[in-house]
């Protein structure tokens, strides 16, 4: 029996690709190939219709302008129907906010989302930037429940009663209330990049299992374990109060008048 | 053509007008810099930092009455500043920080360290608005704006807004801006005086989205435009075609560079236009820019044990695109060093926007503080590699002979120091 290729769509890499988001597609495609499965990565630029026939859809991060444009384009394409039909989705950062019902921007205006998940986003007090560590929701049954990644976002997210978080935050900000991201059926949203699937292969394999409806044996690149250990050490430094105090004293800040929130 | 700025009447400016506070700040800074150099660390930045700490207004005071040109952008700042400094050198002594120390502290050190009336200053793009407000330059060259150090910078749009604010200050600088970069056009189109240069772009315009409204850009001939909001490439006054720079009066100037790669032709063209606006004849400026070969150790070849190490700096996808073009067609082993320290930006996600797949079949060693991040990326690119944290030990893993070292900003400087190159 010849197995059909797993089709992975990168949605609007020209709009939503700020954080090496293409890397998530690379990771999925390689992990399939290393186990003898075929895959096809489909680039869907903003001026093309979104195919409804892909197995996996990836949404990346982007600035406000790009995010609003992506909502407009996705709303009238094949994406909502594909999600309703059970396609697997990974949405990162702006991608996560796009899936929700609405986002408040810094000027106080409400920008509509796709309304596919029960969540809303609003600006937080400051940008959340740094290494994050979180424990995955046990319901996902990840082989390694520890998630690491780099977050960089201004908005915080509130999940409605119908949406479960992807993880609980150990170190970092995430959604802003101790939870991180969202997991609803085959749709996963997260604030983590790095890209997230390169740093958390168990999550990559969970998405592949969703998309192929079969289980996936673990296989990891040689440097992965040392990457994850180092990420945990860096995140622990972020938490350290001593380091926070040292950063506040650092000359760099003093020498940069007018540059505070950059 | 924008009006030429007459060259300064005196080669050095008079320091007697400086306030006592500025003089003290500069003296203490200089002493600290000397001490820092003695113990083997970089000097300039430390001196500038301390001077600014003691007197935040000292930069503005040191810059008053000088003829300053600032160079900014994501990639190519240091090389372009070195070319501009060489070009300005044709008409008088020049102060410059063309060593990569490009925040306000490095700029302050350049001003404090030399009384020259002409200044070619490199400034990090995120500090450009602040630098313009304090230094009040006559010319600002803006090369390109792309993703770099995302975790430090937040969103590029905010930079655009702040640049528009300083561009509206009275008696504004003349911007020399690359019209082939949509972000640059958005950032400076509000400025009163802009000289547009068609200098080429280091990233592909196909499938680029409008930085103003998000709609896909249309590329027609040599221009680009947004069909929705109307942002478009302004008509250029200067145009670079291959290695020929055409001036507004139709004069043609041959651009050549001692540093490799087409990116540097583009950098040289911008430097020549900026120098012309500062009063240097364009052909004289082009000759001077062509003589620049070793820019703060970049592109330099260093002998270390049995290796001839060619040192290249790349810190983002656009910089890496130039490096991959440069090393294509040769098969030297490569040592790639990634530190991702504060000054580099701590988020390494951008490694997945670099087509490392092009290195398949080559001998590659991943090194630096974040060697594991790079190693995982190389595995997913299916590039066989070794992973060693220490760059000098990484060099020992490759056979004797020529080797290309590509490093991000902090690992570049740290490795250069260990290879025995002079500390700046």
Report on this structure.
The complex is a heterodimer of chains A (262) and B (424). Chain A is of the alpha/beta class and 262 residues long. Chain A is 31% helix and 28% strand. In chain A, the strands form two sheets. In chain A, strands 2-1-3-4-12-11 form a six-stranded mixed β-sheet. Mean pLDDT of chain A is 88; it is low at 250-262. In chain B, helix 4 (77-88) crosses helix 10 (262-277) and helix 8 runs parallel beside helix 9 (182-188). Residues 149-154 of chain B have low confidence and may be disordered. Classes of the chains: A alpha/beta (262), B alpha/beta (424). At the A-B interface, helix 1, helix 2, strand 7, strand 8 and helix 7 of A face helix 2, helix 7, helix 8 and helix 13 of B.
Largest interface: A-B, 53 and 55 residues
Rg of chain B (C-alpha, Å): 21 Å
What number is the mean pLDDT of chain B? Answer: 88
SS-derived structural category of chain B: alpha/beta
Mean of pLDDT of chain A: 88
User: pLDDT under 50 segments of chain B (min length 5)?
Assistant: 149-154
Query: What's the N-to-C terminus distance of chain A?
Result: 55 Å
The percentage helix of chain A is 25-40%
Briefly, what is this?
By secondary structure, chain A is an alpha/beta fold. Chain A is built from nine helices and twelve strands. In chain A, helix 1 packs across helix 6.
